[in-house]
Amino acid sequence: MVPRLIAALLLLGAFSPLPLSAQVEPSATTLGGYGEVHYANSSAAGVPGRVNLARFVLFVGHRFNDRITLRSEVEVEDAKVAGGESGGEIALEQAYLDFRVGDQFTLRAGLLLLPIGIINEMHEPPTFNGVSRPTFSEVVLPSTWRDIGVGALGSVPGVPGLGYRAFIVNGLLAQGFDGASGIRGGRQEGRDASFANPALTGRLEWSRAGLKLGGSAYYGGSANGDSTLGTGAFDAPITLIAADARYDIGAFAFRAEAANISVPDAGAINSVFGNGVGKRIAGWYAEGAYNLLRVLAPASAHKLNGFVRYERFNTQASVPPGTALDGALARRITTVGLTYKPVWNVALKADYQFRRDRAHAAEDEVVALGVGYQF
Question: Which H or E run includes 137?
Fold first, then answer.
């Protein structure tokens, strides 16, 4: 069924009528990118302050004509990659072709970002408050989550402001799951990826002036043909449901996300790999920000956002029989800080985090400073 669906999508894109003018439009190449530098100092005893060039990303896009475009990003993490040393990564973050048929349908194929949550598709540093991305968006929703796939996106006819994205991608690998980071380690990220377990993922997003509401879903197997977990396409399934909202009004900006991940075969996965993954992973966060320059300098085009964000999540919201419950994985993080933007695509950031957990085992406070840009 899955191969037939992929073939149908490719045929639809290939044989959809394109006007002859689309074949002679001049091409254009676009260069862009983003980057960020972080400084963090924890109150934990014996932990020194750290500074890191967290990301340097170059974007190359090319329009072949008014129907076909390429988008790609190459990312360097942690400034340097050296043989024999831990840390650092050079990776393709995305590389896909879009074949636009019309407003209601664009075929997309390649290494793509899954349409899950706010941060995964829009994670450039000036687009979010805080030196680092919300921890929820790294641990519960494992951003940046990209995989190879094919699918469609566009607007929903007859419903102004409603758009959709739907893809078939290669699935997760259960052997990468663990109790602390949930499904994050199961991402294949397009590197010689197994397609033993495909996954279906999609998003609906409704927009109007100042408001965006979104819902995302993911369903796919993770057994990778391991006979102890199952050899079917959707064996050792992972089901993810997420919802998010963004609302800007005047000098105020609000955003919130929530997600629930079901791993019904967690007991079998833990028996095979011994990684302590939870049967359910769940969490949420909410954030409010206010542009202080509306009061301090009303005529200024700059922005100085003061913000507060509260995160609450647990990668072992429930565990299967035989798996030890770790209270340190029920985490609460409160972040207060400032984001100064002299122009829309440059941000200077400072924040203070209070990190707590149910077991009081890994609690600390963190001062962080950062700069980020996109172009």
Answer: helix 136-139
Contacts of 99 (CB under 8 A, 6+ apart): 13, 16, 67, 68, 106, 107, 108, 109
| Cβ neighbour number for residue 132 with a 10 Å cutoff | 20
CA atoms within 13 A on the CB side of 146: 22
- List, for residues 273-285, the tens digit of each pLDDT value: 999 999 999 999 9
CA-CA distances (angstroms) from residue 38 to 49, 85, 140? 11, 20, 22
CA 44 to chain centre: 28
Q: What is the rounded CA–CA span in Å between residue 208 and residue 277? A: 39
Q: What is the pTM of this model?
A: 0.90
334 within domain boundaries: no
The arithmetic mean of pLDDT across residues 110-138, rounded, is 97
Report yes or no on 27 lying in a domain: no
Q: What is the b/e burial string over 365-375, where b = at least 16 CB atoms within 10 angstroms of the residue's CB? A: ebbbbbbbbbe
Counted domains in the chain:
1
